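Renewal narrative, Specific Aim 1. Our central claim is that a sequence can be written position by position from structural information alone. The example that follows is taken directly from our test logs and has not been curated for this report. It begins with the structure tokens describing the chain, in the order in which they were read.
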């Protein structure tokens, strides 16, 4: 039987705003001297929440774990559109927001539930001709993007005080939540963009079981080993 070390598996990280998902991988690799480290599903730099980090032989399960459904919570600002569909981008339009109640907003959000063909934003890591779209976007180049099939299980606002709405969405992998924000704003005729985003769940894993990145980086190797979900247990749940 193949031997596994205490560092073959996965840990749950509560990613802070600022670093990229790759930055988190690098920080853990350097801090603990682990050769193979990966993540299961990119979070944008300003997004926070659950990031599944796979270690050692656990990296063999990254594709399976990446395919799990996701749950996000966040804030959408109505009346302003940006080129990246979130608050990192340049403002591209500003329009008045029509008066609407929380129930009316949820009626519009409900039209996005189900199978959708979603066009990825230009500011994304998807490649066109081997070049990431965000690099083209930085040069002011916009190219045609192929729509991708996604599924939204639930999209609901819990609070709305113009122009900000707090929402929760459950969806399949590969869903761009900022595209949902943009498309909802277009449908309402006032534009919108994503201002905050937090991933609360991925498959069977919840952010409640995660440690903040800075706390993980303060652990000793022995303490980290106690937090690692072993490879065999991970494989059984993947």
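The sequence written for that structure reads:
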């Amino acid at each position: 039987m193949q031997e596994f070390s205490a560092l073959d598996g996965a840990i749950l990280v509560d990613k802070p705003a600022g670093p990229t998902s790759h930055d988190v991988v690098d920080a853990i690799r350097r801090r603990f001297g682990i050769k193979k480290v990966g993540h299961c599903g990119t979070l944008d730099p300003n997004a926070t929440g659950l990031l599944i980090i796979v270690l050692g032989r656990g990296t063999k399960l990254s594709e399976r774990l990446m395919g799990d459904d996701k749950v996000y919570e966040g804030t959408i600002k109505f009346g302003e559109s940006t080129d990246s569909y979130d608050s990192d981008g340049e403002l591209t339009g500003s329009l008045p927001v029509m008066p609407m109640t929380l129930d009316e907003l949820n009626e519009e959000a409900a039209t996005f539930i189900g199978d959708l063909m979603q066009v990825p934003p230009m500011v994304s890591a998807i490649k066109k001709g081997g070049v990431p779209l965000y690099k083209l976007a930085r040069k002011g180049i916009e190219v045609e993007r192929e729509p991708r099939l996604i599924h939204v299980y639930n999209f609901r606002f819990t609070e709305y005080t113009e122009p900000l709405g707090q929402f929760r969405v459950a969806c399949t992998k590969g869903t761009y939540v900022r595209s949902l924000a943009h498309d909802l704003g277009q449908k309402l005729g006032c534009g919108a963009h994503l201002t905050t985003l937090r991933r609360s769940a991925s498959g069977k894993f919840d952010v409640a079981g995660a440690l903040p990145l800075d706390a993980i980086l303060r652990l000793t190797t022995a303490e980290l080993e106690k937090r690692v979900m072993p490879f065999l247990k991970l494989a059984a749940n993947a």
